[in-house]
Amino acid sequence: MANGLFLLAIAYLLQREQQLPTIAQISASLPSTHLLAQPPQANIPDVGEQYKLSYQQWVTLLEQEAIVAAQNKQENLFVLLGDSISLWFPQEMLPTDKDWLNQGISGETTRGLLGRLALLDETEPKAIFIMIGINDLIKGVKDETVVANQLLIVRYLKQVHPNSTIILQSILPHSADKATWEGRDRLLALPNQRIRGINQRLRAIAQAEDILFLDLYPLFADERGNLRTEFSTDGLHLSQQGYILWQTALQVFIQAKLDSK
Length: 261
Known about the structure:
Blueprint: H1 3-14, H2 23-28, H3 47-50, H4 55-72, E1 77-82, H5 84-87, E2 99-104, H6 110-115, E3 127-131, H7 134-138, H8 143-160, E4 165-169, H9 184-188, H10 192-208, E5 212-214, H11 217-220, H12 240-257
Helix pairs in contact: 1-12, 8-10
């Protein structure tokens, strides 16, 4: 990651957190990540086959991975819940010394995620990171529904995983008129100002439910509030630079809020 982007992430988060680690401390903690044990290979499609999986096949695959995580009883289990933005977070780029269980599905919505949370019931995560909602908005779901579903997701996780730290992450912006994604017209019909408004309501949910909120939106936005093109491949999904920036934000956040406990 370019030094400027790394410093940008640190400076932004320093304004919001106390006793954060130094850049040197963060840099020293970035060896290759510990990979979560996987289900038997016979049950896992190869990379080419994964692109062809149906939604239900993805759910079945993630259920198998959750079963393995529950059986192995990882003491440092961290979970990612979300859509394709979470799904394609490179495993080797996730913050190190954690057992990461990625439960993202491409095209996922708040309703879909709510319907499959039970897959995690037998796991014992130390932390659960949630990022969901952009597909709802692209598909025309009302803001009130998106927010209500997020609240239900949070309350379900709090009830089933009382010892886990729940982190609600903001919805990221898109690149508006600079987007090249195939659904560009739908992005143009979705003002980023609307996403900012929903993020404010998600922050309020986090405060009311006594969970944590990680506001990534300002890190990824340009002066117009749109997703910076260097952080994206198509104006919606993240590029390698985008994942490096998210990785840095997660590392700072985890060290400040979780590792210190």
